[in-house]
Structures are given as structure tokens and as C-alpha cells.
Amino acid sequence: MPEPQPLLLLLLPRPLEGFILEDQARDLLSADGVVAADPPRVRYGALARLPPALGDRLARATARRLLRTLRGDLRAIAIFHPVQWPLAQALLDARPRAELWYGRWDRYEVAYDASPSMRRRLDDLHGRAAQRSALTFVASDKLAVLEREAGRDAQVVGLAADSFPAPDPGAAVVAVSLGHLGWRTDWALLRAVAERMPELVLLLVGDWHEDECSKDPDFAWCRAAPGLVWLGRRSDEEAARLILCADVGILPFRVEPFNDAALPYRILKYARLGRRTISPELAGVHTWDAAVTTVADADAFVSALRAHAGARLRPDEELRAWALRQTARTVNGPLWERLRELGLE
């Protein structure tokens, strides 16, 4: 009869997808003999708040149910929070040859949301788990020092973030779009640009209007694209700071009569911060030729965006000076002249 497979059981304090150590847990679970158990029906935090005798009784019942699901020789049990100690203890009582692993990435016993009585309970549970642990692994040097000061050993393992995206920062182009995101927006153009340009980060600042675009498949694609960051409506103060984060502003309007004669405010707002605007070929925007680069199609849009890579570190001071001269008093010059003629100055 073959020997039963040795097992390491990870008692997950949360479902794997929401566990802060998900990447490290997944790495361990790649081994044949490592299995995981989701939190029990009565969550660990609730168990820790019960009177100890009742909590221990529920932990023993949970341990019996869990052991019936295991197919192998339980050699080790890993916990990641002191509230898991009662269940781990019940499992160890049933399988005394198994050892305990105790992972610690924070000082849970001094958590902000813990009452004084809960802090005392967590401190007690931590001490019990750490004392029984055959392998205590911690995230920081300071946590290891705390264990040594308590007369216990701990192995520093650090943290991993394997699943967190890491786009190439050297290649990134950051653009910003400020204003209405609805009928006027050329979603097919934005999609085509984003598909051609994986290094693009586009900050979309303004209300988006599902009611205007819900049936547009290009809008749906843009809503799901990771490179398009939907920030919603922001105050002018916030929007200005977001423009400072970008290399260039964009005007993603459809080429059609309603938009063709327009002179969108965002061009001037970008320029006040030394950022040029990239726009489709629209007649109205040529009013501010000094601030705008117009392009014929998605490929040209991509080329223009790439030409501005890194411009956020070298804003166009001449453009900024031009924009800051476009004050209300300056642009109202012809109106003031007529006021004078009418004797209304």
C-alpha cells in the first residue's frame, strides 16, 4: 500500500483572491503536497470575539470537518493571523505529529480597529501561536527583532507582488483628456490608438456618460482597457495637478460638423501648464495653432503621442507663457473697444 502523500495545509484568513499574500500562497500551492482551506463559515475574527470555551468548541468542530476533506498525511499547518490559532490548535491536537508554520506581516495585536480587550486577546493568541510555531516567517526585519526580543526565532521572507502589473516606465507615454466623455468622443479612435500603443497611459478626467454610449462597442472596450484610467469629475485644482502628471493633452473628438468649428477650452487649460494638445483634423482648433498638433488618423495620433514621451519633465515654457497671456481682459479687447465707443467704459 503506497504511503499517503505528505501535506502542508494553508489556512487562508481570506479567500485566495482577496488575500494580501496571494502571490506567495499561489507559489506554495504549486507544490503537489500543498493545499489551502478558505475561511470557515464562522469567520476567524468572529471566533476570536467569542468566549474562549465556545470559540474552542466551534474550532474543534471545524477541524473535524476539515480533516475529513484531506487526502494525505498532514505534516504542517500554516496560519497567517493569530485569530487562526484556535483552529490550528484543534488540528494539531488531532494530528500531533504535524508542525505549525506562522506567517506574520503586521503587528495585528496593535491594530487600529481593535478594542483594548481585543488587543489583549490578539496578544495572547499571538504568543500561543508563536510559541508553538516550528517556522515563524515574517515580512520585515523589525518583526523578526520583536520575535527575538520575545525569545523566539523568526525567518524574514519579505513580500512578493508577482501579480501586480509592471509596465515599462521608460517607455510610458502619459496623456490626459479633460472634459465630457460621451457623444462627442471618438471612441473608435481612442480604441485604435490604445490597441496600437500598449505603453499609453490615458488619464480621463471628467464625467463619462453611459446613457450616451452604452451601445457603442468601442466605448465598452475603452471602459475595460487597463491603459485608460477613468478618474471622473475633478475640481479645477485637482485637474490641474493631473495635467501636470501628463506629457500631452488630447482632444479625442469625432470629426463631424458639430465639433468642426469648436474651440475646446481644454486646449488652453493644457497650454497653461505647458502641455500641447493632439487633436484630429478639426477646423476650429487651428485658432490656437500654437498649442495644437492635428493628425489625420490613428497611426498619426500614435506617432504624435510618442513624440511627446517624457515631456512632463520639460514643459513648454513658451507655450505656457502664451496661454497665460490669454486673459479675459486680453481676449475681450474688441468688446472693451466697443464699450468705449458707446461711452460705457
Per CATH, the superfamily of the largest domain is Glycogen Phosphorylase B
Q: What is the CATH third-level topology name of the largest domain?
A: Rossmann fold
Q: Class of the largest domain, according to the CATH hierarchy?
A: Alpha Beta
Return Rg in Å.
30 Å
Secondary structure: number of strands:
12
Round the mean pLDDT to the nearest integer and report it.
Answer: 95
Secondary structure category: alpha/beta
Question: Order of strands across the biggest sheet?
Answer: 2-1-3-4-5-6
- Reported CATH architecture of the largest domain: 3-Layer(aba) Sandwich
- The low-confidence runs, each spanning 5 or more residues with pLDDT under 50, are none
Helix fraction by DSSP (H/I, runs of at least 4):
40-55%
Please indicate the count of domains. 2
Fraction in beta strands? 15-25%
Largest sheet: 6 strands, parallel
Number of helices: 16
Shape: elongated
Task: List SSEs in N-to-C order.
Answer: EHEHHEHEHEHEEHEHHEHEHHEEHHHH
Distance, first to last CA: 105 Å
Word description of this protein:
This protein is 41% helix and 17% strand. With 345 residues, it is an alpha/beta fold. It folds into two domains: 151 residues, Glycogen Phosphorylase B (Rossmann fold); 155 residues, Glycogen Phosphorylase B (Rossmann fold), CATH 3.40.50. A six-stranded parallel β-sheet has the order 2-1-3-4-5-6, sandwiched between helices. It has a six-stranded parallel β-sheet with strand order 9-8-7-10-11-12, sandwiched between helices. The longest helix has 18 residues. The chain is elongated and about 100 Å long. The mean pLDDT is 95.
